Amino acid sequence: MPRSLQTPTAHEKDIHDPLATLRTKFHIPADTIYFDGNSLGLLSETVQTRVADTMAEQWGNDVITSWNKHNWINLPLTVGDKIARLIGAPEGTTLCCDSTSLNLFKVLCAALDINHGRTEVLSTEDNFPTDLYMVQGLQQLLGERCTLRLVPEQELLAAINENTAAVLATEVNFRTGRKLPLAELSAKAKAQGALTIVDLAHSAGAFPVALLQHDIDFAIGCTYKYLNAGPGAPAFLYVAPKHLESSRKPMQPLFGWLGHAEPFAFSVDYAPAKGIRQFLTGTPPILALAAVDAALDIFADIDMADIRKKSIGLSEYWLACMADEGLLEIMPSISPDKAEERGSQLAFEHEHAYAICQALIAEGIIADFRAPNYLRIGFSALYNTYGEVQQAVSSLATIMHERRYENEAFQQRNTVT
Ligand SMILES: *Cc1c(COP(=O)(O)O)cnc(C)c1O
Predict the structure, then answer these.
(1) CA distances from 399 to 7, 267, 317, 333 (A)
(2) What is the pLDDT of residues 113-127, one digit of tens each?
(3) Strand (E) or helix (H) holding 124
(4) Ligand 1 within 6 A of 235 CB?
(5) Which of 19, 189, 206, 407 is the most buried (most CB within 10 A)?
């Protein structure tokens, strides 16, 4: 790579990193520094092998008997239990299935039904759009039984009131990386009789989450970001045990046969399975679920507190390197200054952010751009190094100081940014 060598500081930090060996489990593309694990995590050897084995041995040789023989039928629950460990949820409360968007639809319906005297879903103006769209779709379906109220993020807690049926909050803002205080959010919601739905898309696998401890009612999230389960891998869904225990009728309206109490009785009428299983819909994507299962094995012996510590170490070092290069004046951070108030990403504002990102990619440094004008850097404690931070910021400095982003080639917009 035509970049400067590591500084002694970066080298020291990498030597003392207790998670350093985990990087060897991942396929790091040649000549690439990858800071986009918050959008799509890297492929690991563990996942590659498991998917290949599941195809060759289970599908290939055991074919349909695998539903029993390899317990495919329960995979959404067994994988769900592995996710539960990372998000502070007890066994039997978490499923791995469908997409985050679809799972949000299910838990929104459940929340509005439990809190049926109220209609208001309260969320933030700059929540990730799919979250808001799902509420808008439900609003079209339910009419006045569902209303969406949006407030600026900093006003969310104060805006919860006696009309709020459910607060829909994404814990980490996808642009700024700001991390909302879940304990306070939950306490305020409880005090006003509102339920909580938390989107953990940028939380699961990035830092410790304590859903049960914070008395969160519902949660959803992705597995293809910090959990590294692969493009479009099935999402997860959490329902607090108290709701699962007290439900007397189906909790959500997508009555799929695999959410039925006795799917193989093939009866005409729907009757929900007990517990979290009733949130299943149709046949699970086994190959993709096998990928999630394997991706989670990498987390089995890791303390999420160590992940958090390194993630903060990487982001603070990134900021320090940018300050050294005089970059923070020309492309200011829009992320909170305090590391504890951030997820595992940073974002910087510049009118040419799109072209800057393209110029970085041309150097083999993968970051991403978020409209209108932010450069976003995601940190994965499992595979990123301090040396990579130092090299990436050094390249960024060259791009900025030489105004390389003005190059015509970097202005062309792709479909996916
Ligand atoms: C990435 C992301 C999603 C993605 O939802 P999909 O249904 O998987 O496309 C949802 N919510 C948030 C907050 C996200 O960051």
Answers:
(1) 19, 65, 19, 17
(2) 999 999 999 999 999
(3) strand 120-124
(4) yes
(5) 206
pTM above 0.85, yes or no: yes
Q: Which residues are identified as catalytic? A: 128, 199, 224-225, 376
User: Is the shortest distance between the CB of 99 and ligand 1 below 6 Å?
Assistant: yes
Q: Is 226 in the pocket of ligand 1 (CB under 6 A)?
A: no
Express each pLDDT in 237-278 by its tens digit.
Answer: 999 999 999 988 999 999 999 999 999 999 999 999 999 999
Can you tell me the distance from the alpha carbon of 144 to that of 140, in angstroms, rounded to the nearest whole number?
9
Residue with CA at minimum distance from ligand 1 atom 1: 201
Number of separate helices (H) and strands (E) present in the chain: 13, 12
Sequence-separated (6 or more) residues with CB below 8 Å from residue 207? 304, 307, 308, 311, 343, 344
Bridge partners, 370 (sequence order): 374
Q: Count CB atoms within 10 A of the CB of residue 257.
A: 15
- Atom index in ligand 1 nearest the CA of residue 225 equals 1
**CATH assignment, 10-30+302-410:** 3.90.1150.10
We find that the CATH architecture of domain 49-297 is 3-Layer(aba) Sandwich (3.40)
Domain ranges of the chain: 10-30+302-410, 49-297
**Is the C-beta atom of 388 inside 6 A of ligand 1?**
no
Atom of ligand 1 nearest to the CA of 224: 8
Q: Is the pLDDT of residue 171 over 50?
A: yes
Which residue lies with its CA nearest to atom 6 of ligand 1? 100
CA of 235, closest atom in ligand 1? 8
| Closest Cα to atom 14 of ligand 1 | 201
